[in-house]
């Protein structure tokens, strides 16, 4: 009689335990109601990519930002030039500019001292540079990279030169051909980098 009573109590305890475990289970319709659409994920992540232009790129960047903790670099290091499988060349850190133009620009003006380089704004500013032959002249370059595609319209170069006369630096007229030559050199370098990567 005692063993039968202990069995009944154990079964009742087991049933109560199972019922209490299922108490927190929600209806699956509630889970679907709380699920986020891809648009909400993109909006919440703060990605700089426009989903109207390329939803796949925007979603990939949004997921990466959310998985790595967001911010400029997140909690994990990013890949600046993408992978061989990734022909869109989108970086995992949300770089809103073409990485080949960026790298081509830095390599082309690598002999000049940098004053500022912002890969997220696409701006490179050099400090004044004078070669050893013309000490009384110096030049400075500003480079602006505007988009994801590797094309001429996404690159703008401004050159500034000065001459030292009467103990002060005097601005020289800007040369559009000099800026165009530098843009062409950067574009050619960027194309070579892209071809070498693929």
How is this fold's topology laid out?
Layout: H1 2-21, H2 28-34, H3 38-45, H4 55-68, H5 99-108, E1 114-118, E2 123-126, E3 137-145, E4 155-165, E5 168-171, H6 176-197
Antiparallel strand pairs: 1-2, 2-3, 3-4, 4-5
Features:
5 strands, 198 residues, Alpha-D-Glucose-1,6-Bisphosphate, Chain A, domain 4, single chain, DUF3576, 2 domains, 6 helices, alpha+beta, 5-stranded antiparallel beta sheet, DUF3576 domain-containing protein, 17% strand
In short:
By secondary structure, the protein is of the alpha+beta class. The protein contains six helices and five strands; from the N terminus they run H-H-H-H-H-E-E-E-E-E-H.
Characterization of this structure:
This is DUF3576 domain-containing protein. InterPro entries: DUF3576. It is a single chain. The protein has helices at 2-21, 28-34, 38-45, 55-68, 99-108, 176-197, and strands at residues 114-118, 123-126, 137-145, 155-165, 168-171. It is an alpha+beta fold and 198 residues long. The protein folds into two domains: 1-93, no CATH class; 99-197, Alpha-D-Glucose-1,6-Bisphosphate, Chain A, domain 4, CATH 3.30.530. A five-stranded antiparallel β-sheet has the order 1-2-3-4-5, with helices on one face. The longest helix has 22 residues, at 176-197.
Count of DSSP-assigned helices: 6
Level-1 CATH class name of the largest domain: Alpha Beta
What is the strand tally?
Answer: 5
> Level of helix content?
40-55%
Pfam family, one: DUF3576
Protein name: DUF3576 domain-containing protein
InterPro entries: DUF3576
Organism: marine metagenome
